[in-house]
Amino acid sequence: MLISKIMSLINTKKEIQEKSILIEIYGLGYVGFPLTVRLATANFKVIGIDLNEERITRLKNNELMDSEIHLEDEYRKCRQQKNIELQTKPMKSLIPKIGIICVPTPIPNENIKSDVFVKSAVESFLENAKTGDVIILESSVEVGTTEKIEKVIESKGYKVGKDFGLCICPERIDPANKEWGIENIPRVIYCSDELSFEISKKIYQHINKGNLLKVDSPKIAEVVKSFENTFRLVNISLVNELAMLCDKLKINVKDVIDAAATKPFGFMPHYPGAGAGGHCIPKDPRFLLESAKKFQTNFVTIENALKINLQMPNYIANSVEKSLSQKGFEKSVIICGLSYKSNVEDMRDSASFKIISDLKKKDFKVFGYDPYFSDESIEKYLIENNLNELNFEKIENLNNEKLKGISCLCIVQHHDIVKERISEIYRQGIIPLIYDCQHKISKESNSKSILEFLGE
Predict the structure, then answer these.
(1) Dihedral sign for Cα atoms in the order 247, 251, 254, 257
(2) Where are the beta strands (DSSP E) in 27-72?
(3) What integer is the mean pLDDT of 360-389?
(4) Residue 261's CB: how many other CB atoms inside 10 A?
(5) Catalytic annotation on 437?
(6) What is the pLDDT of residues 402-433, one digit of tens each?
(7) Which residues are in the UDP-glucose/GDP-mannose dehydrogenase C-terminal domain (predicted)?
(8) Which CATH number is 371's domain given?
């Protein structure tokens, strides 16, 4: 009996070589969708599973978001070849199955646990699972989650590491990064057994050429992912606190950072902004914080970094108000760049929405502009930013007519597709005050617009 169970994983490994397996990817967002396309392009049969029926319908109609459009040709080809199927639930299969979990993980509170979606996806996979199948977790999870998932699997009668594989390979993806993408980013992985590692290597050979660093414990893999984003959060908060000090010192924080970056060792430049948003950086460090609390201790560095990050939108709103007041301008502003980072349409936990809320409390007339802002997704934006309603007037473009009577253009995120227009607005002095949160506009002495920076 034991031998037959071990043979089932051996058989899975053999069938991967022939592409005679089924891969189910749970969650078709920023991680799951490119993963689906890449594996389907390698001639695997891939089932993309997402509970969001609107997303499934959109993808079935070949309607891709801006962040997905670079994959359109490959995606359409895979759909024509029937290498990609789209469903809201998994299917039964007699051939070996690999389940890759790419669902979101919420910040835990009294109403929700961080593993709620991961656990649900795993249980969905297990409904039609069999010996020889393998689950790979790509979702960022709280420490100890993988061990909990192992218990869920074994509650169904399987023995993890003997007749069923379990791995955690936390996603590493940076949307809009032109240098580092899914195909060349090294990955960290923990596997329950050597066969599951070999199976994973054969799969990731088609994702990032199998560049996997194997670690000895699921907790190591979990902490690695949280620590990577903690590093980002702490350094972003550090440089933002420096920017606030430079405002008081009346020196330019970018000049300080650029000069410090000439040191060839022991320094990595980070630049100021309105605060870290998105799905990962504000959330993953909290997993380490929760782990620390379980041992009745604090992770003070993370606590302080989170506090600084939370206060940045209010600091920017106050800076804009102060500057307009000193110059006698009316309290009207366009917040430009509503996404959480440049060149993406992702607006989850965006600093822009927080700045808008703070300015509205100060009786500002607030407009919002982002070339990636979609009317069809307004409800999604509201949910992602904990808002009940859109509390600003959305404008469609930055033409001269729209800018009439506006005192300030506050640029929170610079998108490449409007870079030239923003430069033109500044050069021609079309708007009285431009407040640049990211230090990306070069000052020109002949412009009639006043240009100010976060960390002047």
Answers:
(1) negative
(2) 45-49
(3) 90
(4) 13
(5) no
(6) 999 999 999 999 999 999 999 999 999 999 99
(7) 334-437
(8) 3.40.50.720
230 domain residue, yes or no? no
The token pair that represents 282 in the structure block: 């504000």
Amino acid type, 92: K
- Bridge partners (DSSP) of residue 23 are 46, 98
Alpha carbon 98 to chain centroid distance?
24
Tell whether 32 is covered by a domain: yes
pLDDT in tens, 65-81: 888 999 999 999 999 99
Flag whether 412 is in a domain.
Answer: yes
Tokens at residue 148, please?
A: 């909990």
Domain that holds residue 80: 2-216
Residues 269 and 379 in one domain: yes
Q: How far apart are CA 250 and CA 331, in angstroms?
A: 24
Q: 201: burial class by Cβ within 10 Å (0-12, 13-18, 19+)?
A: middle
Cβ neighbours for 231, distance < 8 A, ≥ 6 positions apart: none
Token pair 């506090």 is at which residue? 307
- For 211, how many CA atoms within 13 A lie in the half-sphere containing its CB? 10
CA 156 to chain centre: 33
Q: Residue 202: what are its φ and ψ, rounded to 5°?
A: -70, -35
Q: What mean pLDDT is predicted for residues 285-299? A: 91
Q: What whole-number distance in Å separates Cα of residue 190 and Cα of residue 208?
A: 16
State how beta strands 134-137 and 165-168 pair. parallel
First-residue to last-residue Cα distance in the chain? 71
224 located within any domain? no
Q: Which band of pLDDT confidence, cut at 50, 70 and 90, is reported for residue 4?
A: very low
Q: How confident is the model at residue 107 (pLDDT cuts 50, 70, 90)?
A: confident
Q: How far is CA 234 from CA 19, 228, 239, 293, 415, in A?
A: 43, 10, 9, 19, 25
Angle at 19 between CA 63 and CA 6, to 5 degrees: 125
